[in-house]
């Protein structure tokens, strides 16, 4: 709950120079001081280390706003601050044109992260500016996902490190008039976390988000993409490999076709959600990461294999030997290669998404088990197919051959051509095998 109260703990002269807000649902405090006669902004943020990052934004919406993003440094004790510009509902991008100086109070101490410093010449930026003479300056705050949600903990000195989508955020109005004057970061860090002054919440999110705070906000597009492609890689693809392998299962082309179409449909769904999710992050907006490149290759390979499959079925309908041609070999091995490509790309995608180590290990275990299971099934099918082929050869050598093209429907049995002999218009005489007719029939 956000409560506007007086800053009773501070002297009146100092209180007039501070504007702050405390969000009890998030155990987070934000404070601002605007020193007179310059364009600097003194800021203070404290948030639980349960959240991977904390951010303060100047503006009513992300588009064209300046944001200060803070997260633990690589040593886990200090803090990295990153000034970023947001161009839309996407991850803000680090802009080195804005300089931020942290003071000695900034640190990761136990279960809290404290960020205190000055953003130099930050009252105007590309696309917007801070109104220094209003009681209703729009502001935003956001908190990154926790490690409990499966996101890897951030510990980096890189100001441009990729940040996952916030799990909680909100908007409020700030009194820049009250924040202007003497104060500095030393005064800001002395604020009691339970006191608010000069602010009011802005509830634009509906009745389910009291006080303008949104909790439980997640990267639904990325989650949908991951689940869809996991089903493809670990379920549909291996089944399709088995159905499309060898002549033993060639009698079930309809099942293979249905599975392949569903396989391709989910790949299209995964590609669509992946493209949409990619637009939300700086590192993926140009579609140049290894995961994205391999994903596009896999998709177009899937289309090519679909075309080969259709050509193969047409060839089998027109010729009894179509299933043994080069098209069949290319289709069969292409399906297997596509599956391996999708499996590998899934692991790369988890790394790109900063998934937890346990999730990555779990995927590797399931992928390895799936691969071994499919190899075992294919080996069994190969052995069974070899035995049937050997039996058929034995039957042929005994003088019993299949009729028609592939022998699929023809069950006629014919005697050896050497076992019959005719003379003129007389009825053929059946002779025992390996016997020659007498001279009178010559």
Automatic annotation (TrEMBL):
<feature type="region of interest" description="Disordered">
    <location>
        <begin position="407"/>
        <end position="442"/>
    </location>
</feature>
<feature type="domain" description="DOMON">
    <location>
        <begin position="26"/>
        <end position="144"/>
    </location>
</feature>
<feature type="signal peptide">
    <location>
        <begin position="1"/>
        <end position="16"/>
    </location>
</feature>
<feature type="transmembrane region" description="Helical">
    <location>
        <begin position="359"/>
        <end position="385"/>
    </location>
</feature>
<protein>
    <recommendedName>
        <fullName>DOMON domain-containing protein</fullName>
    </recommendedName>
</protein>
<dbReference type="Pfam" id="PF16010">
    <property type="entry name" value="CDH-cyt"/>
</dbReference>
<dbReference type="InterPro" id="IPR005018">
    <property type="entry name" value="DOMON_domain"/>
</dbReference>
<feature type="transmembrane region" description="Helical">
    <location>
        <begin position="223"/>
        <end position="243"/>
    </location>
</feature>
<feature type="compositionally biased region" description="Polar residues">
    <location>
        <begin position="409"/>
        <end position="421"/>
    </location>
</feature>
<dbReference type="InterPro" id="IPR015920">
    <property type="entry name" value="Cellobiose_DH-like_cyt"/>
</dbReference>
<keyword id="KW-0732">Signal</keyword>
<keyword id="KW-0472">Membrane</keyword>
<feature type="transmembrane region" description="Helical">
    <location>
        <begin position="333"/>
        <end position="353"/>
    </location>
</feature>
<keyword id="KW-0812">Transmembrane</keyword>
<keyword id="KW-1133">Transmembrane helix</keyword>
<feature type="transmembrane region" description="Helical">
    <location>
        <begin position="250"/>
        <end position="273"/>
    </location>
</feature>
<feature type="transmembrane region" description="Helical">
    <location>
        <begin position="293"/>
        <end position="312"/>
    </location>
</feature>
């Amino acid at each position: 709950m956000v409560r506007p109260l007086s800053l009773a703990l501070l002297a009146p002269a100092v209180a007039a120079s501070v504007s702050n807000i405390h969000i009890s649902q998030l155990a987070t405090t934000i404070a601002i001081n605007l020193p007179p006669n310059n364009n600097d902004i003194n800021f203070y943020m404290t948030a639980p280390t349960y959240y991977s990052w904390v951010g303060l934004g100047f503006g009513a919406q992300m588009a064209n706003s300046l944001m200060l993003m803070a997260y633990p440094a690589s040593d886990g004790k200090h803090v990295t601050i990153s000034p970023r510009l947001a161009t839309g509902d996407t991850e803000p991008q680090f802009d080195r044109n804005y300089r931020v100086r942290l003071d000695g109070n900034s640190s990761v101490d136990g279960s809290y992260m404290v960020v205190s410093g000055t953003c130099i010449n930050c009252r105007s930026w590309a696309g917007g500016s801070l109104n220094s003479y209003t009681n209703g300056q729009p502001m935003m705050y956001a908190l990154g996902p926790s490690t409990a949600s499966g996101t890897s903990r951030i510990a980096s000195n890189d100001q441009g490190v990729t940040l996952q989508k916030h799990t909680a955020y909100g908007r409020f109005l700030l009194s820049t008039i009250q924040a202007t004057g003497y104060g500095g970061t030393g005064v800001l860090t002395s604020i009691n976390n339970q006191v608010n002054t000069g602010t009011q919440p802005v509830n634009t999110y509906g009745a389910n988000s009291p006080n303008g705070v949104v909790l439980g906000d997640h990267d639904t597009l990325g989650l949908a993409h991951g689940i869809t492609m996991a089903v493809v890689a670990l379920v549909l693809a291996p089944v399709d490999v088995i159905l499309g392998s060898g002549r033993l299962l060639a009698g079930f082309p309809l099942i293979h076709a249905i599975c392949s179409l569903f396989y391709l449909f989910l790949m299209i769904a995964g590609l669509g959600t992946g493209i949409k999710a990619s637009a939300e992050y700086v590192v993926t907006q140009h579609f140049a990461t290894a995961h994205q490149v391999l994903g596009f290759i896999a998709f177009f390979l899937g289309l090519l294999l679909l075309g080969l499959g259709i050509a193969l079925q047409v060839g089998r309908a027109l010729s009894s030997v179509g299933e043994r041609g080069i098209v069949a070999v290319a289709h069969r091995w292409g399906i297997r290669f596509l599956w391996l490509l999708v499996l590998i790309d899934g692991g790369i995608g988890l790394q790109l998404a900063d998934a937890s180590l346990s999730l990555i290990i779990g995927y590797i275990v399931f992928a390895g088990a799936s691969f071994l299971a499919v190899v075992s099934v294919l080996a069994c099918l190969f052995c069974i197919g070899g035995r049937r082929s050997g039996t058929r050869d034995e039957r042929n050598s005994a003088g019993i051959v299949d009729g028609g093209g592939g022998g699929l429907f023809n069950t006629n049995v014919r005697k050896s051509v050497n076992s019959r002999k005719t003379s003129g218009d007389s009825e053929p005489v059946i002779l025992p095998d390996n016997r020659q007719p007498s001279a009178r029939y010559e």
